[in-house]
Amino acid sequence: MPIPEVSKIWMDGEFVDWKEAKVHVLTHALHYGSGVFEGIRCYHTSKGPAVFRFTEHLERLYTSAKLYHMKLPFTLEELREATKELIRINELDACYIRPIAFRGYGEMGLNPLTSVVNVSIAVWPWGAYLGDDGIKNGIRCNFSSYQRISPNVLPPLAKCTGQYVNSILAKVESLKAGYDEAIMLDYRGMVSEGPGENIFAVKDGSISTPPEHASILRGITRDSVMEIAGDLGYTVSERDLTRGSLLTADEVFFTGTAAEITPIREIDGIEIGKPGPVTKAIQDVFFKTIKGEEPAYEKWLDYV
After folding, report:
1. 8 classed as catalytic
2. Sorting pLDDT into bands at 50, 70 and 90, what band is 130?
3. Is the pLDDT of residue 110 over 80?
4. Could you tell me which of 299, 17, 272, 195 has the C-alpha nearest to residue 263?
5. What is the mean pLDDT of residues 222-230?
């Protein structure tokens, strides 16, 4: 679906008209994928728009920039305030937020260290990435033939624009095979994550998720789910998962800013089943939290 247009986009300290938010065709990031970004959500609450775990997302943006030797020309607080003002200007009570820092126009070649770094922030209305029905009833997935990038190829802990070609190939392969989403394995053949989601498995009431060394991105929603699950009394562990451990799990679900908490009901034609009680319990707390209805996790909401 086309991105819904709003009024303004923030670019390097200025609010510009949506249709005028342009870059030069010789922008370094366009040629080499040399940009870092974040995906953040702002939710409607009774107290007004609230950004979910805003500081943690921006801190990860700076971590990604550091891993790619990029010095951002704005402070975290400047980006935080610019985003809030952008939401106000566009009169949105809920939206997706996309900050991006990229090497811009002026240099070409594989030595990027003297390139200018540009920063932009866009916001727009965006619903459930894998569909409302997917959140309620679960989605169908397959194991991708494309391996998740390994730490010795590119840093999986960074959200770099160029790295996501790996995810795009996995996503398209799954869609063409008739599935909703892919599950990617790491360089050892262990479960890593989805193209843009972390993954969890539930077995006998215990919850497991792949560890950092499985080439995952340390997801903010993943971290939130682990805390919620622990508070609900579930045992949560970070451990290596095999294909078989997913296929024989009682419940499997994705987490992510875009996907939120999306159950997986089938993998490679093998039925996992409808969303189970553990997934539903975590979903219930999570969706109350983002609506501002769960006082225990009020700390995660940054009101606009």
Report:
1. no
2. confident
3. yes
4. 272
5. 98
DSSP-derived secondary structure for 180-216: SEEEEE-TTSSEEE-SS-EEEEEETTEEEE--GGGT-
Q: Is CATH 3.20.10.10 correct for 132-294?
A: yes
Q: What's the longest Cα–Cα distance across the chain? A: 57
Class of domain 8-124: alpha beta
- Catalytic residue, candidates 159, 280, 288, 299: 159
Q: What is the pLDDT of residues 25-54, one digit of tens each?
A: 999 999 999 999 999 999 999 999 999 999
Distance separating the N- and C-terminal Cα atoms of the chain: 27
Nearest partner of 83 among 117, 39, 45, judged by Cα: 39
Q: What residue spans define the domains of the chain? A: 8-124, 132-294
Strands 191-193, 181-185: pairing is antiparallel
Rounded to two decimals, what is the model's pTM? Answer: 0.95
Buried b (16+ CB within 10 A) or exposed e, 44-82: ebeeebbbbbbebbbebbbbbbebbebebebeeeebbeb
Alpha-carbon gap, residue 187 to 182, rounded angstroms? 16
